[in-house]
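sorry for the late reply, my laptop died twice this morning and i had to redo everyting from scratch. anyway the thing you sent over, i finally got around to it. pasting the sequence first so we're on the same page, its 329 residues, then the predicted structure underneath. double check i copied it right bc i was rushing
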Amino acid sequence: MRFILLKLAKTKYKYNPESLKYEEVELTLIGRLKKISYYFVSSIVFCALVLAISFNGINDYIRKEATKDNANVRAELNKFYTDLEEIIIVLENIEDRDDNIYRSIFEVKPYPDYKRKLGTGGNSMKFKKYQGLRHESLLIDISNKVEAIEKKLVAQSRSFDEVIELTKTKEQMLKCIPSIQPISNKDLSRISSGFGYRMHPIHKIMKLHTGQDFTAPVGTEIYATGDGVVELAKWNSGYGKCVIIDHGFGYKTKYAHCKKLNCRKGQKIKKGEVIALLGNTGQSTGPHLHYEVIKNNNKVNPVNYFFNDLSPEEYEKVIELSSRPIQSM
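ok and here's the structure:
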């Protein structure tokens, strides 16, 4: 016997051929449970299909985003590394200016190279934390660059501290460095034998003349060419009566063949102060002043230290006069 099921609203009916009527179907408890289970299983299957499709889509999206993020991270790290290299170049330029310009102004040696490199290198174990990371080698390179910059900044800061101290003493330094002629010589007529090999007036042999001679009448005032402290004021062998002034900063000056000394050892002297009177003592063939400039224990050409007295044209004339091959006095 066939039953035809119809669904009207939420009530189910079946056709009864015997009564020729549609009769309401009443589900048993088992029937109801079966019906519910059909819906439940269908829902689970549907949800599983939806999740499977969604998971594959999400997984693909995550992989694409991860790849994109990885490329972005690499690009950012490379840019950071390039920026660090540019910073190092700037620091090296600052170091060069510090050594060859700032320090040369104050006539001091460049900042020691070993101090700039102090603390470089070190334990490679400090990079162990980068092991296994995706950009391990690049991260290690960046860490090395950052460390190098830190070391350069520390060294340069210390160097600039020294330069600042030199700046504070620059005014005093300018007062102390020899910068004028030791006697009044406005018309430059008193320039005699200069620095270089000259015929010795006594021994009659070519010998290095380590100073600048000035001819003038006996009793002409002799001036200190810079601030300092008298190191020697007495007879000094062939130099006769002699004054030596220690100006500090590596400079000393010597004034020889004096007639009279107007200072004593240990006395503080100011630039332009009269320290002696010109004479003809010691190994001398006539009244004159033998003047020397000593820098870092080396005797140098005094004409290079007349810059406060001379114009460029006068300086050229002094060079010409002092270089004449005449016998020293």
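The chain is about 40% helix and 20% strand.
thats about all i looked at so far, will dig more tmrw
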